Amino acid sequence: xxxxxxxxxxxxxxxxxxxxxxxxxxxxxxxxxxxxxxxxxxxxxxxxxxxxxxxxxxxxxxxxxxxxxxxxxxxxxxxxxxxxxxxxxxxxxxxxxxxxxxxxxxxxxxxxxxxxxxxxxxxxxxxxxxxxxxxxxxxxxxxxxxxxxxxxxxxxxxxxxxxxxxxxxxxxxxxxxxxxxxxxxxxxxxxxxxxxxxxxxxxxxxxxxxxxxxxxxxxxxxxxxxxxxxxxxxxxxxxxxxxxxxxxxxxxxxxxxxxxxxxxxxxxxxxxxxxxxxxxxxxxxxxxxxxxxxxxxxxxxxxxxxxxxxxxxxxxxxxxxxxxxxxxxxxxxxxxxxxxxxxxxxxxxxxxxxxxxxxxxxxxxxxxxx
Length: 370
Ligand code: GTP
Ligand code: MG
Known about the structure:
By secondary structure, the chain is α+β, with helices and mostly antiparallel strands. 30% of the residues lie in helices and 27% in strands.
């Protein structure tokens, strides 16, 4: 075991708890009989008692299902690219997506500020592209990081009248950390004070050098407002994604990532999930972080009920017992009982960890006193 109480440990040693407590006291630690000691600490105390200790690593059940079985290359099929739109606040990310989707989300946002992640799928020349809109406001770093992690390509939106700003740089760092190629969309070129070349100049400092200047970064000049350069941007996205040969196996139980989740008054817990492999079906039993359930309904980005979601598709998942956290992995399992058991084991593990963290003698404590 990873840890045990002083009493359990004493029993194994064939000593009294008092003797163990005394030994711990030699290290300046006041422990109680029910206090947990970790394996390293136990090793030191056992050695003090004259035992020779060999540590065996226990084979642990993978209750978090972190490992995905690799797919046979023959099962892989092309999937749409997942494209995350990032950039400084008000540089026009949502407007750009509105122009691409021919919608008007910007108009419905409170104060014109995006406060959550939006996920949409569009079709261009018969090919699907999944877009993720992220907030540019400085308060939403975690959401940007999450957006960068699930994506294949990052669109860095920089307003030509404002230039490189703090969250522009932050977005570059997120994309680089996630190893994702960046396409720069220099926006608002319709403005009289637009200086697209200044933006290009500024970005060279961050290693983003236009092809025309001998670099390898794709720059597209756009106006979300006047719908200039949209077609070219979409072409570039497809070009860059073709180079990546994005594939997934759609013919297996789904795995996906929660991009956001909330409690809806009428519908209960709702999780927006980006399916990454396999196909998610209505009726599937799922475990999502600490939550579980049977998929009661799937709703696509246009608010339509769908029966299934294939790789790269964002869907709202209804039917979970509770609200999962953004970033949680959704995994389809055999049946609801399995899902529930896993979720309960996870909850227990988490609870135990929290408890242990507050009531534990660790190796660190020992060394503090030596
Ligand atoms: P956050 O999500 O809060 O970070 O903002 P955002 O990057 O999504 O910007 P948003 O699309 O909300 O646009 C901000 C403002 O810029 C709005 O008033 C838009 O109308 C305006 N805007 C966006 N694109 C253009 C453009 O191409 N030209 C001009 N002139 N204005 C634009
Ligand atoms: Mg926005």
